[in-house]
Amino acid sequence: MKIHKEGRKIVLYCFVILLLSNAILYYFASKSIFFYFYLLASVVVFGVILNFFRSSRCVFPGETQNLVICPADGTIVAIEEVFEPEYFQENKLQVSVFMGITNVHVNWIPVDGKVLVSTHQNGRFMAAYLPKSSTENERSTIVIERENGDRILVRQIAGAVARRIVTYAQPNQDCRINQEMGFIKFGSRVDLFLPLDAEIQVELDQKVYGNQTIIAQFA
User: Is residue 105 over pLDDT 70?
Assistant: First the structure.
């Protein structure tokens, strides 16, 4: 299992803390049943953290022209036409992917093009599956312009547990599918805002995979 660079220090610190605490408890209470409960809990906690920060190097298996590829592992929790107030200020198709604690939390560039905007907005930490989290939570906004002039907005959203959003995409940067866009630590959500003529290829409650599942297609 490969650990993503965003999690290497956290995994190392967690391992050292759990190792030392178990060693101390073993020294003072090795015959106590509490020691075995703590040891078991430590293994479970470390396993969850290790699983969370795992990294999967996925390459999209095909042509990427006119496709919008899923930016994250998770579940589709919204497909609807909405008014996007922060950048477009007009109606767009919103597709939202909720990432659970067991999902890989790497975020991927969804279309080939050029990054026009990459901004970070402070906000609340409501549960990421709530509709208001898209505009009220801590978030980063990335706008990518395709070669034909279409603009795609991708929003990384913090959740009730997530407290740090990492964004690699920078303004004026050429970007391609198969590139990492960022990372959200400890569970959250990614929203896509697409042109109204995009043909959506996913359904509500569908399990999707970052850099693998086709979200939408353009004619």
Answer: yes
Residues sharing a CB contact under 8 Å with residue 132, sequence separation 6 or more, in sequence order:
126
Which pLDDT score, from 0 to 100, does residue 198 have?
A: 95
CB atoms closer than 10 angstroms to residue 155: 26
* Predicted pLDDT at 190: 94
pLDDT of residue 119: 92
Residue 199 has pLDDT above 80, yes or no: yes
Residue 32 is among the residues annotated as catalytic for this protein:
no
Residue with structure tokens 């964004």?
A: 167
The answer to whether 164 and 49 are in contact (CB under 8 A) is no
Instruction: Say how far apart CA 144 and CA 152 lie, in whole Å.
Output: 5
Note the residue count of the chain. 219
The Cα–Cα gap between 155 and 191 comes to 5
Q: Residue 163 and residue 184: Cα distance in Å, rounded?
A: 8
Nearest to 42 by CA among 13, 12, 22, 16: 22
Four-residue CA torsion sign, 43, 46, 51, 55: negative
Give pLDDT tens digits for 27-48. Answer: 888 778 888 888 899 998 888 7
